[in-house]
Amino acid sequence: TLHPVQFLAVGGESMMRSHPPPWFLLVGAVCGLVGGVIQHTGKTDYRIGGLAINGKEALERQMGRTFRDYMTREVGPLFNPPLTFDMISLDFVTTYSLVESAEIDFVYTNPSIYSCIEWQYGSSSLATLRRKRQGQELNSFGGIIFVRADNTEVRSISDIKDKIVAAASISGLGSGQAQWLMMQQKSMSLMQDPKQVVFTSNQGEVVKGVYSGTFDVGFVRTDQIEGMESRATPLKGEDGTTVPCKKSLFRYVDVVERIVDGSPFPFDITTVLYPEWNLAALPHVGYHVSREVQKALMKIESWSDEATNGSYIAWQPSLSYLPLIDMNQRLGTIVPQEGGGAKTVCQRAATLYDAIVCPPGHFKMTEEEVNEGCVSQNLTCPEGDRCLCRPCRRADEVEIIPEGGGGGTCSKKQG
Fold first, then answer.
1. Maximum CA extent, the chain
2. Which has the closest alpha carbon to 99: 346, 292, 320?
3. Higher pLDDT, 255 or 19
4. How confident is the model at residue 34 (pLDDT cuts 50, 70, 90)?
5. Identical fold at 45-137+276-322 and 140-264?
6. Is residue 172 packed enough to be buried (19+ CB in 10 Å), middle (13-18) or exposed (0-12)?
7. Domain map of the chain by residue range?
8. Which of 171, 241, 250 is nearest to 206 (CA)?
9. Which of 49, 46, 73 lies closest to 60 in space, CA to CA?
10. What count of other Cβ atoms lies within 10 Å of the Cβ of residue 188?
11. CA pair distance 357, 363, nearest whole angstrom
12. Is the dihedral of CA 38, 40, 45, 51 positive or negative?
């Protein structure tokens, strides 16, 4: 009498008979797998939300083939009934609101925002992007602080005090938050130490503005300047003369060495290294769907239409996003939930004013005062940009009584 599971020795290894016994098929059916197709009783339409930092059209052009076409083609037929995937564009506000309402099932966003979503909503990162940056395949990036090469006043981060600083966004990672954390580690405040902070919404404009003399100091992502040099991006000087961008026109401040994939990071960097963008599943997505989406991402080849259009090389098993949670906590962008209690949540900043985080011992001025802050200090905000000119006020010893949380204004204690 043979054991129910019969094995044959082949070349020193064991293999199951090509015709498995009935009990084996029964187990497969109970587990939801029949004929290689996963029997699925849940929803069939899945939505992937992508943060459109360069606009809806750019997101569609870069990631539509991966998240809509490829996923529907590769993952959909694995289930019965088949699944379909769609992609919608998100901004810094709808990312949180659609995650909270479960109107999307997967999220593709920048690492800083993702860390907040994981912290607050329990999402699970499935895979991290590997990008090709100036010929280098990388899964991490950081930020650089730079000045024009002939700037002799700024030699270190400490010299940023009383200077005009430019970054792409107060909520951006490589051109904003990463450098903000470096300032904080030097006991400095991005809000209070620079004379003016200008947010351009475009890293290329930061580089152009530093070269033209509009800004003293720039914050951009690692390899931003190298990329502009490779494209010979024109820069206009103070005298109106135009020259092609070259790294030699600038000087990087407080450069450090970092390791990625066991080797030195190939670009100059001022900040900590952080993992690339990722795709994550929200808690309501079932295991089998998440697993097949993850497997499909890992199969994408560098030469495919999906990778070529998305400007990436491949997807790899997810890196840890815990360093981003630590960064957000240190910057004060993870805050106590309104109404009290021990729970902390991610700060939702619909406006620049909402995103201001004052250093200890300071409180945020009124929105009207902040909006007029640069004018009152005889500083001009470039057209199309958003600016802050020391939006916090030092509190007197008798003043620190928050009204509705530490990020708001405070009233003066009487007596």
1. 96
2. 346
3. 255
4. low
5. yes
6. buried
7. 45-137+276-322, 140-264
8. 250
9. 49
10. 18
11. 9
12. negative
> Tokens representing 5?
């599971």
CA–CA distance, 331 with 177 (Å, rounded to integer): 8
- For the cut 60, the answer to whether the pLDDT of residue 14 exceeds it is no
Q: How many CA atoms are closer than 13 Å to the CA of 62, on its beta-carbon side?
A: 17
Mean pLDDT for 95-119 is 95
Spatial separation of the C-alpha atoms in residues 360 and 354, rounded to whole Å: 17
Q: Which residue has the higher pLDDT, 336 or 362?
A: 362
The H-or-E segment that residue 334 falls in is strand 334-336
Is this prediction's pTM over 0.90? Answer: no
CA angle, 152 then 134 then 109, to 5°: 95
Q: What is the CATH number of domain 140-264?
A: 3.40.190.10
Q: Would you place residue 378 in the very low, low, confident or very high pLDDT band (cuts 50, 70, 90)? A: very high
Extract the tokens encoding 236.
């206009």
Q: What is the CATH number of domain 45-137+276-322?
A: 3.40.190.10
CA neighbor of 120 nearest in space, from 368, 390, 346, 329:
346
Predicted pLDDT at 406: 47
Distance CA 49, CA 268 (A): 32
d(C-alpha 355, C-alpha 365), whole Å: 13
What is the edge-to-edge ordering of all strands in the sheet holding 37-39?
A: 33-34, 37-39, 79-80
Average pLDDT over residues 396-402: 56
Tally of CA atoms within 13 A in the half-sphere of 302 that contains its CB: 6
Q: How far, CA to CA in Å, does 351 sit from each of 38, 92, 122, 145, 199?
A: 45, 10, 26, 25, 12
Burial class (CB in 10 A: 0-12, 13-18, 19+), 23: exposed
**How many Å apart are CA 172 and CA 206, to the nearest integer?**
13
- Which residues on neighbouring strands pair with residue 234, listed in sequence order? 244
- Note the pLDDT tens digit of each residue in 132-168: 998 889 999 999 999 999 999 999 999 999 999 999 9
Asked if 168 contacts 175 with a C-beta cutoff of 8 angstroms, the reply is yes
pLDDT of residue 233 exceeding 70, the answer is: yes
- Whether 15 shows a pLDDT value over 80: the answer reads no
Angle at 356 between CA 107 and CA 334, to 5 degrees: 45
